[in-house]
Amino acid sequence: MKGGALAAGDLIAREAGALTGGRAGERPSGELLLAAPRGLFGTLQEFLERAGAWHD
């Protein structure tokens, strides 16, 4: 994903009230932009980590 599209997607999600990020403790990247409601964001990050979503 190009930097401008990443920034636009991040901004749109945040303006809609979502939290955005990448892997736990990391910023969004061209490889991963996670957006979810505040009450679900941390749980979704943990689930994706346990499921091995970040690993090749």
What percentage of the residues does DSSP assign to strands (E)? 5-15%
Principal-axes shape call: flat
Report the uncertain regions: none
Distance N to C terminus:
18 Å
Helix content: 40-55%
Overall mean pLDDT stands at 85
- Counted by DSSP, the helix tally is 2
Major beta sheet, specifics? 2 strands, antiparallel
Secondary structural class: alpha+beta
Give the number of DSSP strands. Answer: 2
- Summarize the helix and strand pattern as letters: HEEH
Supply database-style keywords.
flat, 2 helices, 14% strand, 56 residues, alpha+beta
Topology, element by element:
Layout: H1 3-15, E1 18-21, E2 34-37, H2 38-50
Antiparallel strand pairs: 1-2
Describe the structure.
With 56 residues, the protein is α+β, with helices and mostly antiparallel strands. Helices cover 46% and strands 14% of the residues. The protein has two helices and two strands. The protein has a two-stranded antiparallel ribbon. The mean pLDDT is 85.
Brief write-up:
This protein is an alpha+beta fold and 56 residues long. It contains two helices and two strands.
